[in-house]
Specification:
The chain is of the alpha+beta class and 424 residues long. The chain has helices at residues 5-15, 17-40, 47-81, 89-92, 179-182, 295-300; strands at residues 93-94, 105-110, 113-118, 122-129, 134-139, 145-150, 153-158, 164-169, 186-194, 200-208, 213-221, 226-230, 240-242, 248-256, 266-274, 280-288, 313-315, 330-333, 338-342, 348-353, 356-357, 372-373, 375-380, 387-391, 395-400, 405-410, 415-418. The radius of gyration is 29 Å and the shape is globular.
Length: 424
């Protein structure tokens, strides 16, 4: 629904409230400087001009401050006290997103499929479809391939042809066990990391049964089309890092130390794994105060890790950083379940009241505020202008927070929104 001219003015002032405060402060500061300057230059020839200017300046400042005080009060009432409109499909959501001035291609999980579509409602396609629900997906650094992880299997997908091949599965038996005696084998695949050259990747796989468990780490080579196990007889390996040359993998182990005997709380043992021999080698020890990766200390030792893999991976629980745009704008929900927008620093602009629905697996009387919000999986699109989200019943929505305009991108359940970053 299009806004009136007055509504557009209020929306603009709400989005730029901090700027309005700054301008007002500058005017007051300018008034003070001019006032002091005129006092210091109180010469007889300028007395008439001085008195006229002073009177006019006083009137402008008083009327201006009074008007701004009323305006600030109205904006506060509009965005903090006035009830926000309840979000309705027919009243507030347009039937498409062709009005969006952005053609970013987004990917999202729709149960057993990985789908993609441009956010201006163009070029929808199914990238991958399997027999189990999709859990996460990872772009190769060159953007040509995808690793798609389902509940049971790991697949390699060609983004251009959409052809896929299964790389590994948790359905294989634990070594040395009889299936009839051990029963069903369970497991999980994790730790997927592409090499910077996009020709190799590493992953971890855990399997367990009633009698035993098995943890393995594998390196897969695309050119040779084979996987090789990384063996470590002394310790379990996890959370590996590639170097930027794609020649070695690194494993960091944080060992707690006695604070009475050592200045630092931890000692980081750095192990290197050559892609040729796949053997674990301890190369250095680094003191550390916390459990973070000691980037500076590693760089001093000529160990340059490839840390941009997180930009290529999409899956797992939502993060608070998803609600913050590239430009620092923020989305969130207030105590009244209103979706709000903070354009600059602290002034909130209420957009819509979001309803809640009870969970089917819980007793409604014990659910927080009557259930879950019908909007979830909110994430900013690169560029900081548009937001993508899922509505439990309507589908995937695109929102322009600065104007409150919203459109229906696709009628499908969608979550774990991601994209291939152009600069990695």
């Amino acid at each position: 629904m299009e806004k009136t001219f007055f509504g557009k003015v209020v929306s603009f002032l709400s989005d730029h409230f901090e700027l309005l405060i700054s301008v007002n402060g500058s005017i007051l500061l300018l008034f003070l400087i001019v006032f002091i300057a005129l006092k210091l230059r109180d010469i007889d020839l300028l007395k008439v001009l001085y008195k006229a200017f002073k009177s006019a300046l006083y009137i402008i400042v008083v009327i201006g401050q009074f008007s701004l005080f009323i305006l600030f009060g109205y904006l506060y009432w509009e965005n903090y006290q006035r009830p926000a409109p309840q979000l309705h499909l027919d009243e507030h959501v347009s039937a498409s997103t062709q009005w969006v001035k952005n053609n970013t291609r987004i990917y999202f999980i729709d149960n057993k499929a990985l789908r993609s579509i441009k956010i201006n409602d163009r070029d929808s396609e199914i990238v991958f479809s399997g027999s189990d629900p999709v859990r996460e997906y990872h772009f190769s650094p060159d953007g040509k391939r995808l690793l798609v992880l389902t509940q049971q299997d790991l697949f390699l997908v060609n983004r251009k042809t959409k052809q896929s091949q299964r790389i590994d599965t948790i359905k294989e038996l634990v070594e040395g066990e009889d299936q009839e005696k051990a029963g069903p084998v369970k497991g999980s695949i994790s730790g997927i990391q592409w090499a910077p050259d996009s020709q190799k990747f590493v992953y971890e796989i855990a399997r367990w049964s009633k009698f035993s468990a098995q943890d393995s780490v594998y390196l897969y080579d695309l050119k040779k089309e084979r996987k090789r196990a990384i063996r470590s007889p002394a310790r379990r390996i996890s959370s590996l890092y590639w170097d930027k040359q794609s020649e070695s993998l690194y494993y960091l182990y944080h060992e707690a130390r006695d604070p009475m005997l050592h200045a630092s709380a931890y000692e980081v043992k750095v192990f290197r794994i050559s892609t040729t021999t796949l053997t674990l080698e301890l190369i250095t020890r680094i003191p550390s105060e916390d459990l973070s990766v000691p980037i500076d200390s590693l760089n001093l030792r000529d160990i340059d890790l490839f840390l941009d893999g997180d930009k290529l991976s999409f899956g797992g629980p939502a993060k608070e950083s998803d609600l913050v745009s590239d430009k620092g704008s923020l989305l969130g929900f207030d105590e009244d379940d209103c979706l709000y927008f903070v354009n600059s620093k602290w002034f909130r602009k209420r957009l819509y009241k979001i309803s809640r629905e009870p969970r089917n697996t819980e007793i409604p009387r014990y659910q927080y505020k009557g259930g879950d919000l019908v909007i979830d999986h909110i994430r900013w699109i690169p560029g900081g202008r548009y937001v993508i989200m899922e509505h439990r019943y309507w589908g995937v929505l695109i929102l322009e927070p600065s104007t409150g305009k919203m459109g229906l991108l696709i009628r499908a359940s969608g979550h774990t929104f991601g994209w291939y970053p152009k600069a990695v």
